[in-house]
Design brief:
single chain, elongated, 76 residues, 0% strand, mainly alpha, 3 helices
Amino acid sequence: MQITGLRALIEIVVQLAFVWLAFAAIQGIHFEHFFNRPPRTLPLLIVLMATGLGYLCATFFLNILSAIGNLTYLIR
């Protein structure tokens, strides 16, 4: 029971860390230069893009860790 809770906590922390990392990376791209008049919803778009990219990267990272952990069953 505690292992499941610990795993959930780790997944939440990893998800938030990757969303933050994606947000920091996207901040380096100045999207307002692509528009003559940037839309008012541009910050929302940046947040949604960071959330989507962070989720995808975190899911990939967690799946790789899970696959590495399951390699021990190949040896047994």
